[in-house]
Amino acid sequence: MKKGNVLFYALLILVSSVAMGAKKPPKNNKSAVGNSKWSIGLGMEVADFYSPKLDKLSTFKKPIWFGPRLTMWRNFNSSVALGLDLGSYAFSSKLDDATLPPVNTYNLLYSGLAAYKFNNGYILKEDAAVAPYLFVKLQGTWAKSPVFQDNVNGFGIPIGAGINFKIANNVAFNVNGGYNFGIKNNEDHIFFGAGLMLDLGKGKEVAAPVDTVVATPVDTDGDGIYDIDDACPEVPGLAQFNGCPDTDGYGVEYSEDECPTVAGLAEFNGCPDTDGDGIIDAKDACPEVKGVAKFGGCPDPDRDGDGIVNDKDLCPDVAGAFSAQGCPDKDGDGVADAQDKCPDVAGPASNKGCPELKEEVKKKLAFAAKNIMFETGKAVIKPSSYKILDEVASILNEFSYYDVNIDGHTDNVGDDAFNLKLSQERAAAAMAYLTKKGVSASRMVATGYGETKPQADNKTAAGRAANRRVEFNLIFK
């Protein structure tokens, strides 16, 4: 037989197998192995490469290959199975030259399989103890050459036959053998295998039907539910309640409805809960207002538990102080934290909860505004003014809950644009000095107003001197 024709005959076997096998895999758990939906096999296989070369049966001489074989079958019907094989051969052979060591190597085999089974109900019974089959494979191989250790991929077409000898309902002893036609990098050889086949998913045995006398069903209450299935056979009812009625039409069976004449909820055994607070109306002192069980279904009169009833509490859900009408007041000054510009330091409400500046502090800031000296026509602070600015920094660090506007002003002598620029630069210079003394720059804003905001008459020397100033105005954050 030419190797080129082998594939044709293999496919012919597969097609004819499908045509002959019309039955699905039987669910009888007594059927032979190989007739459930899935079968798995594990065994050993021996391959003889010597006999085909001599054209005569002279098995088990060198070279002999052997190794494990794993098989998975998908039984599409009682005649045909398709599957996958995975195996390996170990090879050992002595060379003609006795001075050289034996050659030892191995290869991997992977193949697709089509099988035609004789225990298909046509040829043999499905539960036959001896179940023969024919098979054809398309087999790929991979190996390393013994000498050069090169990767070699091959292809062959094995055909053969096997027999499953039933051991138990889902276990069989399997023997098989056949001939491999080498197509590429693959020599002709014969092979023999043995192992176990295991069926997966066998069905339960179905008991034979028993002839019974069918009685005419009776429906006494005429609700469409026969008395044998009707829990209330003399009262028309609903199928969902096994024939019993739902008087108020709200989805709760009459016998289990604690309020059968009033529409209610199943979770409350058919009773209503108008306000949805989880307390049925019959036990709710305030049935139309959500409440809590502790107060008989009425709302908690003091939700935040601060001793101030909800109607008088400006913050009924957050515990607060009496002095702040129930709202939080950390510093206890009677100004609620939400309105307190200084929530951590007590201060009067008139000053938005912040401490009022002492008169002495105000005087120091006013003195600083008139006595910070700069180089003439420049924004350079004279050293004689450092002590005054140090005192301003000390005040700002003490009253950290205030921000400060640093405003620069000039007299009207000189160019207006120059005076505006000079006033801005001097305010910025004062801010830079205070920053070095630990006052955060984020608390300060420096602005120059030039000659636009005089506080004295620029016609006199004293008035012009008073107008040349840097003011420090404390503001709330």
Keywords:
477 residues; alpha+beta; Porin; 60s Ribosomal Protein L30, Chain: A; 3 domains; 8-stranded antiparallel beta barrel; 28% strand
Description:
The protein has three domains: 198 residues, Porin (Beta Barrel), CATH 2.40.160; 54 residues, no CATH class; 118 residues, 60s Ribosomal Protein L30, Chain: A. The chain is 16% helix and 28% strand. The chain is built from six helices and eleven strands. The strands form two sheets. The protein has an eight-stranded antiparallel β-barrel with strand order 1-2-3-4-5-6-7-8. A three-stranded mixed beta sheet has the order 10-9-11. A hairpin with a 4-residue loop joins strand 2 and strand 3. Helix 3 packs antiparallel against helix 4. The longest helix is centred in the C-terminal third of the chain and has 21 residues. The protein is flat and about 135 Å long. About 4% of the residues have low confidence.
Number of discrete helical segments: 6
Any idea what the shape is?
flat
By DSSP, the count of extended strands is 11
Order of helices and strands: HEHEEEEEEEHHEHEHE
Mean pLDDT: 78
Helix content: 10-25%
> Structural class of the secondary structure composition?
alpha+beta
CATH fold category name of the largest domain: Porin
The main β sheet shows up as: 8 strands, antiparallel, barrel
What is the number of domains? 3
Question: Strand percentage, roughly?
Answer: 25-35%
Please identify, by name, the CATH architecture of the largest domain: Beta Barrel
Radius of gyration over C-alpha positions, nearest whole angstrom:
51 Å
Task: Order the strands across the largest sheet as they lie in space.
Answer: 1-2-3-4-5-6-7-8
First-residue to last-residue Cα separation: 102 Å
Q: List low-pLDDT spans.
A: 17-22, 25-29, 203-208
Question: In CATH, what is the class of the largest domain?
Answer: Mainly Beta
